[in-house]
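Replying to the earlier thread about multi-chain prediction with a worked example.

Input:
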Amino acid sequence: MQMKAFDAHDHDGCISAGIVAAERHCAEHALQLTPVRRRVLEILLSEHKALGAYDILEQLRADGLGSQPPVAYRALDFLVSHGFVHRIERLNAFVACSHGENAHTPAFLICRACKRVTEAETDPATSELARAAQRAGFVIERTVREAEGLCPGCAEVSRA
Amino acid sequence: MQMKAFDAHDHDGCISAGIVAAERHCAEHALQLTPVRRRVLEILLSEHKALGAYDILEQLRADGLGSQPPVAYRALDFLVSHGFVHRIERLNAFVACSHGENAHTPAFLICRACKRVTEAETDPATSELARAAQRAGFVIERTVREAEGLCPGCAEVSRA
DNA sequence: AAGCGATATGTTATAAAATTACATGAGGTA
DNA sequence: TACCTCATGTAATTTTATAACATATCGCTT
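Result:
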């Protein structure tokens, strides 16, 4: 299991791996990783933090790549719908996926102090949500699992 | 486990039980269940659906109980912070709690067709989120667990 | 090459959700 | 009374998201 966001690591690798994975997936599925989409993904890959659409838009603007909200939202829709980026409902914000390109059911740990977000792979079948749904006869199409709190580093600081 | 929202039931009982539980809790804890707060709780108890703050505000306005957004948001903040109401992050909306007054870690099943929301009690300790947090050394303060899909009734209709 | 459909982007305007800041009011209590 | 706390009233603004319509680009067909 990867849980890089809260640990020191070679972050340049995260960026290039994310871009490469997206490029490959797009090539294989006849999808267009256009300049705007690619740039939005890069922006999100540049830190393990969730960014709001307007934060991203600001950076796009600085790059001369689009200045109106729909530009950012459309790129984000594309990236989210193909699994390159996840939306964090709790924050109305977005993070780059950190699990290569395969479909998955992620859970997120959101540090309220340093704002980093880490993605944990979960087994949807064994979750409480799935069990509750089964008991109720409910057909799940999408789930949101997000925990807010303190990452190891920030928890330690706050105890000190 | 209660999972009333998707089943036929004596709904008047839900409303009065919700109000009574809130009244009692407020009396015991020296909290004020003011007319606006009480009315917002009633509005939310009147259906097992999530309502946006502005939907609620509209009803308050009709009742002459307040017409500006902060009125609704303040009442909702109060009700949420004392556990009488839950916020559904996925919908930016609110539902009345259906589990009496004790603190709990609910999960929600949201039907995208009929819009009803049901609350399932979960054991936070055994959840995927808790396991992931434990592995990472993350201290959870709050969790969001929401599943979107089709309730039993709407799933059947869509299969027909 | 001209025309066509599909996909992506540019731009204006607006909607929806939430908060800030400051004024007012209703109770208790010293 | 004077004061404090809690709750409400109100105006203005900020933040997040979408609708609607125009333009551009690319591949395909004829």
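The two ends of chain B are 29 Å apart (CA to CA).

Feel free to reuse this layout for your own posts.
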